[in-house]
Write a structure and sequence with these properties.
17 helices, three-stranded antiparallel beta sheet, mainly alpha, 4% strand
């Protein structure tokens, strides 16, 4: 009978969960309410600052939870939407819960400040005192942007130079693209100071770039010296890349993959509106140029890339420009340049394998993101910062220009209209591939990075 009973208990144990086997609920320690409020306020302010400088929602949530846990405040519930953050804490059944909510301003990438905030969270987990942590946070929060506005405008102009180097353009076209990008950046800054919505700033910037391209095309048509072989399409493509480079595509895709639907939806809608502003500005500029008799030449073939060596120089220039534009430190700039070259090498190898431009772009972004995740922790730089700068050279500026120009030129020609729409669809596919590849690289790189760290720690203990 005892043996039968033992078999019955084993079978029942394999099927059912024994209530007695569950761990007992641990008593929650009584914590001073004022202390808890100070900790929650610090974690919320750090989370708010992280969102404001462009961090992904999952990183913000984890950082806020890590800060509170380091000071003994748990469990804490963190809720993030596109423009607000809430942190809630309930100490026990006899205590009243309290929740703090803050509205977050529109994110402006500042990767230097992001790096310092990440370092602060690590130091808090290492045992930094609460009062000292609050002082350090206020010092970080008051830091101005790393570079002056004139430097940022020049960086935006150099980004356009990098795009021209990719296509092997002449020095005169490169100079015009540089001037066009700088003027577009100045126009956007002027509109920002007047508190004009950024949607209209994007349209105005695109219109400025198109005006420079139209003037270049007029000089080319009239056989003006130095402009005989000018490529106005490259000027517009460089402007498109410049205006799309400032968007947080990687962060939006990462939020969607991590399950932050509201935040991802808000960011994606914001990206769509800003892209639409660029589209409206270019379409309006092209249509106006046609009315003035300086229409653009339409080609169904994409512009040819320059020599391979010049391509890599252009990629490095673009990555460095984007990193400076986002306020990165010198170390982050160097890592961004290296990853940009690696991503472009992966892209060229994938294109040579005849797998299609969208998939090849995803491969390049995946490679840069995966390697960037492994390098970022070792070199103490934000992974999203170096990944964002590395994938910008693959932004489909020329495809967007060709599709929009085809739509304007098509008029009643259904076939040309469909071909132009297919170019725009391809540009959308490339954008999705870049975002997906970058997010997948971050997802795959994190466990590999953690494994390598644990191996290094074990070897250090053995020694």
């Amino acid at each position: 009978m005892a043996a039968r009973k033992g078999w019955r208990e084993r079978i029942a144990g394999a099927i059912h969960v024994d209530p007695a086997a569950r761990p007992e609920t641990q008593a929650i320690l009584s914590i001073d309410e004022m202390y808890a409020r100070r900790v929650i306020e610090l974690s919320m302010r750090i989370a708010e600052a992280l969102i404001a400088v462009g961090a992904a929602a999952n990183e913000v949530t984890l950082s806020a939870s890590r800060v509170t846990a380091a000071y003994g405040i748990r469990p804490v519930h963190v809720d993030i939407t596109f423009n607000s953050i809430a942190v809630s804490y309930h100490g026990g059944e006899s205590d009243l819960p309290f929740t703090l909510i803050r509205v977050v301003r529109a994110p402006v990438p500042d990767h230097s400040k992001l790096q310092q905030l990440q370092a602060l969270v690590v130091d808090i987990e290492a045992g930094l005192e609460l009062d000292e942590a609050r002082i350090r946070f206020h010092v970080i929060r008051r830091l101005p942007f790393r570079y002056r506005p004139a430097v940022i405008v020049l960086a935006q102009g150099l980004l356009a130079v990098g795009v021209c180097l990719l296509y092997g353009s002449s020095w005169i076209v490169t100079l015009v693209a540089f001037l066009a990008a700088c003027c577009a950046a100045l126009a956007q800054r002027a509109m920002a100071r007047a508190h004009v919505p950024f949607f209209f700033s994007q349209a105005a910037g695109a219109l400025v770039v198109t005006a420079f391209a139209a003037a270049t095309n007029w000089l080319r048509v009239h056989d003006v010296a130095l402009f005989e072989d000018a490529q106005p399409g490259v000027i517009v493509a460089a402007g498109i890349v410049m205006m799309l480079a400032g968007m947080s595509v990687v962060g939006a895709a990462q939020d969607a993959i991590d399950g932050f639907a509201l935040t991802a939806g808000g960011r994606i809608l914001d990206l769509a509106l800003l892209t639409l502003g660029v589209v409206i500005g270019i379409v309006g500029g092209v249509a106006l140029a046609q009315r003035l008799g300086v229409g653009f030449p339409l080609s169904t073939d994409p512009p040819a890339l320059g020599p391979v060596g010049m391509q890599f120089v252009g990629v490095v220039v673009i990555a460095v420009s984007v990193a400076v534009w986002n306020g990165a430190t010198a170390r982050t700039i160097v890592v961004s340049a290296v990853l940009g070259a690696i991503a472009w090498g992966g892209y060229l190898a994938a294109v040579a394998g005849d797998i299609g431009v969208p998939l090849a772009s995803g491969v390049g972004a995946l490679l840069a993101s995966f390697i960037g995740t492994l390098m970022a922790h070792r070199l103490h730089v934000p992974s999203i910062a170096v990944t964002t700068a590395a994938i910008v050279p693959m932004v489909p500026g020329s495809v967007v220009y060709r599709g929009l120009l085809g739509v304007v030129e098509a008029e009643d020609d259904v076939i040309n209209l469909m071909l132009s729409l297919s170019d725009l669809l391809q540009a959308g596919a490339i954008g999705l591939a870049l975002a997906s590849g970058a997010s997948l690289g971050l997802f795959l790189g994190a466990p590999v990075r953690d494994t390598l760290q644990s191996v290094v720690r074990r070897r250090g203990r053995i020694r």
